[in-house]
Amino acid sequence: MRKIVLDLATTLDGFIEGPNGEVDWCIMDDDMSFDEFLDSVDTIFYGRVSYDAWGNFHPDAGSNLTELALWKAVHSKRKIVFSSREREDANAEFITADLITNVKKIQSQEGKDIWLYGGAKLIETFIKNNLIDTYRISVHPLALGKGKALFGDLTKVLPLKLVGTKTFKSGVVQLIYERAAKE
Amino acid sequence: MRKIVLDLATTLDGFIEGPNGEVDWCIMDDDMSFDEFLDSVDTIFYGRVSYDAWGNFHPDAGSNLTELALWKAVHSKRKIVFSSREREDANAEFITADLITNVKKIQSQEGKDIWLYGGAKLIETFIKNNLIDTYRISVHPLALGKGKALFGDLTKVLPLKLVGTKTFKSGVVQLIYERAAKE
């Protein structure tokens, strides 16, 4: 069964955004091999708001080649949007009910891993239903003291199993976990 | 000049305690070499509440030898308590005014490094005044979703410089930072 992978950038004190949505601290270094991660997935799960914001985003033509290549890779994936409402969309499939059943069905299909893109509400739903297989959390070298919390307000403790770490030249440390609790 | 070192255990999502003060998730593995850290310091800075709670704590005689040895080492250090009130105390020196001046004076004295023990309010004061040289943050493999925040509510962004990482068999990852901003 292919894995559902969450990939998030956080500050050392556990914020994914500043109090006004600031993400200017977020580093994308050339040694981070985000392209390798993208290459390991063929499907992306979005919440509806995140899909509308980023699902069909195209960087300016003048952007650097790495960024252009990354977005091109993103847009080559199968996109699935979890939403309360049906929508016809040329670039994505919408799922409006039976989230768990549909996720398990997609997960059991042949293919590469699945990137759980976000946003926060969708991630919370996936955590609560124990649907995330791999957590890739990139801890950035700063503290904000306030902002949007990494996992929101969990209803119970989330135990994790460390499976690897990577240190990047910028001082970002990626911590990779699997779920510790099996259903 | 000797260094002021903060050593804290946190969850992946940046909590040092659960909402009811829970620290039962905190792991002290035998590969963590806390004794080596203790050996690198000869002075401990406490806030008054932390000192009263832990400054003269003695574990039960039936505790394991490692714990007994750690506490013995703690109690061999010079202890300095930052408090709003003077107190005569056989085991500690009380500082009630001019925190920054006194800290710099102690720091300029000959000796090993200084452990900034806590609590939260004292740590906040040290962060705000840019007095911490080394941050040793042990990220534990779990998320709580709520609790007491790692650094409290900072007044400004705290930039850090990663200087090392250590991974322990329990899945704890220690991230070691120095201040990125010089005064």
TrEMBL record, chains A, B:
Q: Mind telling me which PANTHER family this protein's record contains?
A: 2,5-DIAMINO-6-RIBOSYLAMINO-4(3H)-PYRIMIDINONE 5'-PHOSPHATE REDUCTASE, DIHYDROFOLATE REDUCTASE FAMILY PROTEIN (AFU_ORTHOLOGUE AFUA_8G06820)
What GO molecular function terms would the record report?
5-amino-6-(5-phosphoribosylamino)uracil reductase activity
Pfam families named among the record's database cross-references = RibD_C
* Regions crossing the membrane: none
One of the GO biological process terms: riboflavin biosynthetic process
Upper lineage: Bacteria, Pseudomonadati, Bacteroidota, Chitinophagia, Chitinophagales
This one is known as Bacterial bifunctional deaminase-reductase C-terminal domain-containing protein
- Top-level taxon of the source organism: Bacteria
Show the InterPro entries listed in the entry: DHFR-like_dom_sf, RibDG_C, Riboflavin_Biosynth_HTPR
Q: Which organism is it from?
A: Chitinophaga caeni
Record-annotated Bacterial bifunctional deaminase-reductase C-terminal domain positions: 2-173
Residues folding into a coiled coil are none
